[in-house]
Design a protein that fits this description.
Elements (H helix, E strand, L loop, with lengths): L5 H18 L29 H12 L21 H13 L10 H17 L13 E5 L2 H20 L7 E6 L5 H9 L6 E4 L11 H13 L3 E8 L11 H10 L3 E5 L24 E5 H4 L7 E5 L2 H8 L9 H4 L19 H36 L3 E5 L5 E6 L6 H17 L6 E5 L2 E7 L7 H20 L1
Parallel strand pairs: 2-3, 2-4, 4-5, 5-6
Antiparallel strand pairs: 1-7, 6-7, 8-9, 9-11, 10-11
Helix pairs in contact: 3-12, 4-12, 5-6, 5-10, 12-14, 13-14
Bound molecules: pyridoxal-5'-phosphate.
GO molecular function: carboxy-lyase activity; pyridoxal phosphate binding
Protein name: Phenylacetaldehyde synthase isoform X1
Cofactor: pyridoxal 5'-phosphate
């Protein structure tokens, strides 16, 4: 008697199509992906009457799939991964089918409580300090993205400091990060009303493998204090987007603490690896942080979106973000007996995202997840070795996790020509349709990024990818 019960079968069909695409390794015709290509293939307006599922799915196969970049392909190495898994997919289906909106505890008690439990589970797997657990003042919350996590932390920190120094001091508040920090921080500053000149971007270079030097932070903070500014927010990195740089959390946190600066740690990609005891060292010092973020939707087999944010002081968030209109009042909230996650995030409505993370943790178990991560890191290590054995190439920064940053070496020290050559290599490799890489710039060098982390990637895919890269490079070098 469930309305539209047949839609569950449709959901299953969609999943089968996606699997077939990958199993058949469908070639993407790049010519179809010119801007506006879909406008030429679909009608200008919605149909007046229902069409059949077969018609719609046929269009998905012939018109939509050719216009997709296959993030789940085993040879997708471009951006940090966005893992999909059977457990994650089942959780998504269940959540979509249940269709609850758990903004307050009362709107679906299990949704709020499962989120608290699952974030505590993961905090324990990461060996985060007790203050991040839900039993005291701290706790975890699922955001849609690392960008939202940074924004929410910054707004909590901003209002906390403004309560101390007075609302008029907004123009004096200063934010710090290295120049390797994700652009999400700048966006958060824009939204939070931080003056652009007060977003201090400190240089990190190859001498520290692009990690922020604590002396630079100390210098900048002291200078700003002398000038009458108010340092209030520091974003540290564990696994930067460009090159997986890891900032020295303990030393940065010490400076933050002694200057009453909120310390946020962005481990959006690399946080997942830190459930393995041998990689936990990269978040040593997290005990000095006020907030910590990792994206389970990147490298933790949990379908997009599922970004995990832990804070030590939940009241910093709720003071800044809570609203209490009459139409949302209820006994549990009024009595302060429950967590209402609407007050820990920007929107009101929220999906039942903890379900998929819970299913991933239960259906795979921590040991499988650790080995999953280790396998990708091993594949990246093997690739790093292959790159370093080829005299035409160099590894630009030492690999830490599963990202390899490399380039064709310059000839006659001509860095400009070298950059052009590496850009051409990227275009040639991606145009082959056999794999997908991306690039970044490190100290002015154009660098190719190979991020290994798709669930279906095996040794053979990495080896074949390297062969394509070598072949395209020799062709370019001959030219
Ligand atoms: N931080 C880091 C280190 C990232 O690598 C990324 C994206 O790749 C982000 C933040 C932004 O992530 P999101 O898309 O979840 O906002």
């Amino acid at each position: 008697s469930f309305p539209c019960e047949h839609l569950f079968d449709v959901g299953f069909n969609v999943f089968v199509i996606i699997l077939l695409v990958y199993l058949n390794n469908v070639d993407i015709d790049l010519s179809l992906r010119q801007p506006g290509y879909l406008h030429n293939l679909l009608p200008d307006s919605a149909p007046d009457h229902p069409e059949t599922v077969e018609q719609v799915l046929d269009d998905v196969k012939t018109k939509i799939l050719p216009g997709l970049t296959h993030w789940q392909s085993p040879t997708f190495f471009a951006y940090y991964p966005s893992n999909s898994s059977v457990a994650g997919f089942l959780g998504e289906m269940l959540s979509a089918g249940l269709g609850i909106v758990g903004f307050s505890w009362v709107t679906s008690p299990a949704a709020t409580e499962l989120e608290m439990i699952v974030l505590d589970w993961l905090a324990k797997l990461l060996n985060l300090p007790e203050q991040f657990l839900s039993k005291g003042n701290g706790g975890g919350v699922i955001q849609g993205s690392a960008s939202e996590a940074i924004l929410v932390a910054m707004i909590g920190a901003r209002d906390k400091v403004l309560r101390r120094v007075g609302k008029n001091a907004l123009g004096k508040l200063v934010v710090y990060s290295s120049d390797q920090t994700h652009s999400a921080l700048r966006k958060a500053c824009q939204i939070a009303g931080i003056h652009p000149e007060n977003c201090k971007v400190l240089k990190a270079d190859s001498s520290t493998n692009y990690a922020l030097r604590p002396e630079l932070l100390q210098e900048a903070v002291s200078k700003d204090l002398e000038a009458g500014s108010i340092p209030f927010f520091l974003c540290g990195n564990v696994g930067t987007t460009s090159s997986t740089a890891v900032d020295p959390l303990a030393a940065l946190g010490k400076i933050a603490k002694s200057n009453e600066i909120w310390f946020h740690v962005d481990a959006a990609y690399a946080g997942s690896a830190c459930i393995c005891p041998e990689y936990r060292q990269y978040i040593d010092g997290v005990e000095t942080a006020d907030s910590f973020n990792m994206n389970a939707h990147k490298w933790f087999l949990t379908n997009f979106d599922c970004s995990l944010l832990w804070v030590k002081d939940q009241y910093a968030l709720t003071e800044a973000l809570s609203t209490n209109p009459e139409y949302l009042k209820n006994k549990a909230s009024q009595a302060n007996l429950v967590v209402d996650y609407k007050d820990w995030q920007i929107p009101l409505g929220r999906r039942f995202r903890s379900l998929k993370l819970w299913m991933v943790l239960r259906l795979y178990g921590a040991e499988t997840l650790k080995n999953y991560i280790r396998n990708h890191i091993k594949l990246a290590k093997d690739l790093e070795q292959l790159v370093s054995q080829d005299p035409n190439f160099e590894v630009v920064t030492p690999r830490i996790f599963s990202l390899v940053c490399f380039r064709i070496v310059p000839v006659d020290n001509d860095e400009k020509k070298c950059n052009d050559r590496n850009r051409n290599l990227l275009d040639a490799v991606n145009s082959s349709g056999k794999l997908f890489l991306s690039h970044t710039a490190l100290s002015g060098k154009i660098v190719l990024r190979c991020a290994i982390g798709a669930p279906l990637t095996e040794e053979k895919h990495v080896k074949e990818a390297w062969k394509v890269i070598q072949e395209e490079a020799s062709y370019l070098l001959r030219k």
